[in-house]
Amino acid sequence: MFLIRPLALSRLCVKNHGILYTGVRNHWNKDYKPGEFPKSPKQRALAAKKYQLIPEDYEPYANDGNGLGDYPNLPLESGDAKDPFYPWDNPELKRNFNEPLHADADMIGEDRYDVSARHRIPIWLQYVQFFAWMGGAFILYYGAGKMKWFLAAAEKQYPRNGPHYTFEPKEKECNKNTK
């Protein structure tokens, strides 16, 4: 059984060579990374064609050293802001075929942050409320830490150890008080 399993795996790879093709022949590091920042109008037109945009709509990111190169600076629109009734090619992601992704696509998906949302409570007020509650809780915690929050209890009393308390004053203390 131990010798049969590796053979089955090798047969699977030979029959379904798409796994090997994807892993070996698709050089994602050179095929999918953006090219150099376009410096001439001809390079801009070629980059626009590369990303299926018309040259008038193509605007690359600024050449500030972030490594985005000729990637188009698309408008920041989250998945919640897109029309749910439009016949998308991929309705799960609200995308069409060959539509370029935004550089921050991992942040603005439909299940992620909504950049176009308008909150009922402004963000500054949310911060004020948060720090007010946390500050109040800290003050209560710090103030209550100085108080004793346990029940006073005397030593456990057993009959064999003799009386643990008496209602009569000690003789030494009595003698000091009378002098």
Automatic annotation (TrEMBL):
The keyword Secreted does not apply. Keywords: Membrane, Transmembrane, Transmembrane helix. The chain crosses the membrane at residues 124-144. One of its GO terms (cellular component) is mitochondrion. The keyword Metal-binding does not apply. This is NADH dehydrogenase [ubiquinone] 1 beta subcomplex subunit 8, mitochondrial. It comes from Ignelater luminosus.
